[in-house]
């Protein structure tokens, strides 16, 4: 379905929550990836640059990890800016999903992992309200990405 299931109030509070973590997009994006690679080491296999890195400290310093962390956060930021416009939102999510499904062949379960880690980080830094106001957004993103994967034959 192309309709977003978020009310105007939910969109506003989700944006407020996201802004807090997006202020430090590179550091927080890096923290999310480092946690993913550390807690789910199989996810490193998709990134040739990161494969040999075992210590969180080493990953944190890596330009590639930092660059990708920032990229992930700026993609989510684009989605968050378009939560009230499903056409524009899908215009961002669709090519991203297609690329990850067809070119990069990333298992879609990794999107849920990343989203859950973002929610964890929000809760640690800004508390439970921040986390809960962003939870619906992560569900929305993951649902749309999974739909795109299905269309691509996953």
From TrEMBL:
It holds the Pfam family Globin. Keywords: Heme, Iron, Metal-binding, Oxygen transport, Transport. Its EC number is 1.15.1.1. It catalyses: Fe(II)-heme b-[protein] + nitric oxide + O2 = Fe(III)-heme b-[protein] + nitrate; H2O2 + AH2 = A + 2 H2O; Fe(III)-heme b-[protein] + nitric oxide + H2O = Fe(II)-heme b-[protein] + nitrite + 2 H(+); 2 superoxide + 2 H(+) = H2O2 + O2. PROSITE patterns: GLOBIN (PS01033). InterPro entries: Globin (IPR000971), Globin-like_sf (IPR009050), Globin/Proto (IPR012292), Globin_lamprey/hagfish (IPR013314). One of its GO terms (molecular function) is oxygen carrier activity. Residues 5-150 form the Globin domain. Belongs to the globin family. Involved in oxygen transport from the lung to the various peripheral tissues. This is superoxide dismutase. It comes from Certhia brachydactyla (short-toed tree-creeper).
């Amino acid at each position: 379905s192309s309709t977003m299931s978020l009310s105007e109030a939910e969109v506003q509070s989700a944006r407020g929550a996201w802004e807090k973590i997006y202020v430090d997009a590179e550091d927080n994006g890096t923290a999310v990836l480092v946690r993913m690679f550390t807690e789910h080491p199989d996810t490193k296999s998709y990134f040739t640059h990161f494969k040999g890195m075992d210590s969180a400290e080493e990953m944190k310093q890596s330009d590639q990890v930092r660059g990708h962390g920032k990229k992930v956060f700026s993609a989510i930021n684009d989605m968050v800016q378009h939560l009230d416009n499903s056409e524009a939102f899908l215009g961002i999510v669709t090519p991203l999903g297609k690329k990850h499904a067809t070119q990069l062949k990333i298992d879609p379960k990794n999107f849920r992992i990343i989203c859950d880690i973002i929610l964890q980080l929000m809760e640690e830094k800004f508390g439970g309200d921040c986390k809960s106001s962003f939870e619906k957004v992560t569900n929305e993103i993951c649902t749309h990405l999974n739909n795109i994967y299905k269309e691509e034959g996953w």
